[in-house]
Specification:
heterodimer, A: mainly alpha, B: alpha/beta, six-stranded mixed sheet, five-stranded mixed sheet, 33% helix, globular
């Protein structure tokens, strides 16, 4: 080793490049296997169908029920992908190689969040049209606002879910523990998302839902930052 | 029992200081001490072969030396830097386990290149091709790892660990699953690493395999070193060592 400890054949770690590399690897694995995506998508569509056939349109208007259905599906289909996030690292202990590399713990976490965010958005790309179709919702320009709400909620869900997936992955009951740990934290995410969605679907001005959107944004800022700081402590054995 | 201090410095070792030092390492899981007061000093180019029965604490010691576990007490330093250390220090470590440490859905080349990129290798493609050639798996470079036999997966795992040219290589049962060609490729690769000044710590149950590469040996039991020896460059009395190992480990003379 040279005195300067620097090498001309190696580059210094780069937070964003390393995070993107990990996200790209996770997404490539999911693209090759499609196991979690298929499971989450099939679950989402089946859930929409079940909600549709248990719904009495004469008792509850679609505009009132659809936001709840959308965000229940969003939450549980997202959980299916989160479980896999660290499962693929631990199957052959590839995680040890990652932790022993020069990639920072924060970059590993950010990479996992990016991959989970893309995963959740892909599932929502199927779930949103399915909800619109089965609940006969009017589709118009206001749907771009709903897409924006989904983006904000997906970021918060991915950050919190990735942190708890890392914690749960070290236990024998990971698949049971993950929903038990994450669902209470998703409540402050799902309530404003559902309320803002309801405002949009009822055709009210977006200003009426601005307070809910601010709650969503605040949740993202606080929890994304907090999870990045906390994550390195979750991987100590 | 307090472990004796292993000091491994082969002839011609650098006078600039030890490559790896561990001082009074203790790692407890609950009330049980998996590693109990191990100290060692390894110089550049040294190879410590570590033997011991299952549950002796060998793998835990390797994880401590690689910075994957934090010691309950004690400290490890690699070229003077504490472990687990900064990115530059972590980059100096290569880890080979009896787990493949690979992603089965990715190809051989994708796995090794990903490891190279994570270790900051500037020309990751060239480094990947070079190490796959060295481990004699280049012809399977585009095959998904899940389609490979256990022995080939182990070769790829070794390529993954060596692609960035580590200065400290920690090997946990690296010969597991390897056929004759694979074992020879690994021995050649480790010999080349030693010649280039890398420091090796090799955990194995196979005494003759371990002693063939080692400059020093140690026997571990119940978390401590119960014996250590200098391996003569002219060879080693393997049958005599096996008898000593049996006496210490199986007959409980330690």
């Amino acid at each position: 080793m040279s005195g300067s400890r620097l090498s001309t054949t190696h580059r210094a770690p780069s937070y964003l490049a390393d995070a993107w590399r990990i996200a790209r690897k996770d997404l490539l694995i999911e693209f090759r296997t499609r196991s979690a995506f298929l499971a989450a998508t099939v679950f989402a569509v089946l859930a929409v169908v079940i909600f549709r056939f248990t719904w009495d349109p004469t008792a509850i208007p679609a505009m009132d029920l659809a936001p709840g259905v959308l965000w229940v599906i969003f939450t549980f289909s997202g959980l299916l992908g989160l479980n896999r996030s660290f499962g693929l690292e631990l199957a052959e202990r590839a995680y040890d190689g990652l932790l022993a590399s020069q990639v920072s713990r924060e970059a590993i976490f950010t990479g996992k969040v990016i991959a989970n965010f893309v995963f959740v958005m892909c599932v929502q790309a199927v779930a949103l049209p399915a909800v619109a179709l089965f609940f006969d919702l009017p589709v118009g320009p206001s749907w771009w606002i709903i897409v924006g709400i989904v983006l904000l909620a997906s970021l918060g869900l991915s950050a919190v879910g990735t942190l708890f997936a890392a914690i749960a992955s070290n236990t024998r009951l990971a698949e049971l523990l993950l929903p038990m740990m994450t669902l209470p934290f998703f409540v402050p995410l799902v309530i404003p998302a559902a309320q803002a969605t309801a405002v949009v679907l009822r055709g009210q001005p977006i200003a009426d839902g601005m307070a809910w959107l601010k709650v969503l944004l605040a949740f993202d800022l606080v929890f994304v930052s907090a999870c990045i700081v906390v994550f390195p402590f979750t991987i100590e054995e | 029992m307090q472990s004796p201090h292993v000091t491994a410095a082969p002839e011609g070792a650098s006078a600039s200081g030890p490559a790896l030092t561990a001082v009074a390492l203790v790692r407890a899981f609950g009330g049980r001490r998996a590693v109990n007061g191990v100290s060692l000093t390894l110089h550049t180019g040294a190879c410590l072969a570590l033997f011991g029965p299952n549950g002796a604490g060998k793998t835990t010691l390797l994880r401590l030396l690689g910075g994957l576990l934090k010691p309950t007490t004690g400290a490890t330093r690699l070229h003077g830097q504490p472990l687990p250390g900064d990115a530059e220090t972590r980059r100096l470590v290569g880890l080979i386990s009896h787990h493949a440490m690979l992603y089965p859905a990715l190809s051989v080349r994708e796995n090794v290149r990903f490891a190279a990129e994570c270790q900051g290798v500037i020309n990751a493609d060239d480094a990947t091709t070079r190490v796959l050639t060295q481990l004699r798996v280049l012809d399977r470079a585009d095959t998904a790892v899940r389609y490979l036999s256990r022995g080939l997966q182990q070769r790829v795992s070794i390529a993954r660990a060596l692609v960035h040219g580590p200065q400290l290589v920690l090997l946990d049962e690296p010969y597991t699953g390897l056929d004759e060609a694979g074992a020879q490729a690994l021995t050649d690769a480790l010999g080349a690493l030693k010649a280039n000044g890398a420091t090796l710590v090799l955990v194995t149950h196979n005494l003759s395999e371990g002693l063939a590469l080692a400059t020093h040996s140690a026997i571990m039991q119940r978390g401590t070193f119960v014996d250590e020896a200098l391996v003569s460059p002219s060879g080693f009395d393997v049958p005599g060592y096996q008898a000593k190992y049996r006496a210490l480990v199986h007959e409980g003379l330690a």
